[in-house]
Amino acid sequence: MESYITMLIIVCPLVFLAGFVDAVAGGGGLISLPAYIFAGVPIHVAYGTNKFANSIGTAVAASKFFKSGNIKLKPAILSAIGAIIGSWFGAKLVLILDEKYLHYCLMIILPIVSVFLLFNRSFGSLEEEKEIKRKDMYFMSLIIGFIIGGYDGFFGPGTGTFLVLAFTSLLGFNLITASGNAKVVNLASNIGALIAYILGSKVSFAIGIPAAVCSIAGNYIGAHLAVKNGAKFIKPIILLVVGMLFIKVILGFFDL
């Protein structure tokens, strides 16, 4: 009983923080997954339990963005379809390619993204979005979902952040709408993975249910503040997540 309570003391606050970050800018898994492992949850169960709590928390965040009118539903659904297909291909790619090739790419891409965000102050902050033809928007949404879904299946961390950046830079969404659309795509990919983990008996509901409550709270507060404060609130957290991902990539590359 003591070890169970200790696990919850470690996991719950970090899952709350992860939900908050994830709702705003994506990348919450960089915080929540290590929390389960640090608490002593076996790694495969940690992955499954993390997906369980994240799926519920992400659904709450997506609902909050949707109610506030900050989701473009058709592009979001098309991106979700693309992500499901892309993640399957990404998972297959793991079998034939060394993950370190992706580490090389990320070590170049992430600092460029950081510099771009730091020096482009107007990025994603415009209230009026770019006018893009519907057919082009739908096609690009599908491609964004497919490519970043492939990344998610191959590697994973920071998927939500890359979705936000893609929706903003390629489709001209403001950061609030981009974050809302990213939630729908994340929810689709989380549910797909969660089904597999439940069927494989890799979810600890004793830990997952309290963690899900904390994830709901974090996601709700994060989504509320993102909708209320817009780009000035979202952008610094994107930078934080990009920085965390860069550190993870470096440590992973050197097997630290």
From TrEMBL:
Which compartments does it reside in? Answer: Cell membrane
Indicate the transmembrane segments per the record. 33-53, 73-95, 101-119, 139-156, 162-182, 194-221, 233-254
Keywords tagged on the record: Cell membrane, Membrane, Transmembrane, Transmembrane helix, Transport
Q: How does it sit in the membrane?
A: Multi-pass membrane protein
In which domain of life is the source organism classified?
Bacteria
Q: Which family does it belong to?
A: Belongs to the 4-toluene sulfonate uptake permease (TSUP) (TC 2.A.102) family.
The protein in question is named Probable membrane transporter protein
Cite the source lineage: Bacteria, Bacillati, Bacillota, Clostridia, Eubacteriales
Which gene holds the coding sequence for this protein? yfcA
